[in-house]
Amino acid sequence: MAITVCSIILVIIFSALACLHVYWATGGRWGIESAAPVNEQGKKFLNTGTVSSLIVAAGLTIFGVYYFILPSGTFAFAGWVIPSIFLIRAIGDFRYVGFTKKVTSSTFAELDTKFFSPLCVVIAALGFAIKFLN
Q1: Which of 5, 19, 46, 112 could form a disulfide with 116 if both were Cys (CB 3.0 to 4.6 A apart)?
Q2: Mean pLDDT of 30-56
Q3: Given phi > 0 = left and psi -120 to 50 = alpha, else beta, which region is 71?
């Protein structure tokens, strides 16, 4: 039962995030300005264009599908890889993203501290819970 609940939550999170990235890829503007980290001069250094948004949406969709079907055997290792990716993202790069970031004065940095990094911790915790309970 706990595995099912964790899986459903992850499918919902990944689906919502994938939809948001598709929205941005198709020209949506809500939230896009604060969705990428900026350097000390306030300049974005990640491409938030159509192709990159679609690539991220595809990856998030794949993660959601994984938690929808919870494959065993060959693909079971993904159950460790996916939450590890989000745990590493939450910890950060010690400069621009995650709890260890040094650049903290931008809108992205504030949102990252309040929402993005904690969401990554939740994703990691749910993913690891599934592996440990399985």
Answers
A1: 112
A2: 89
A3: beta
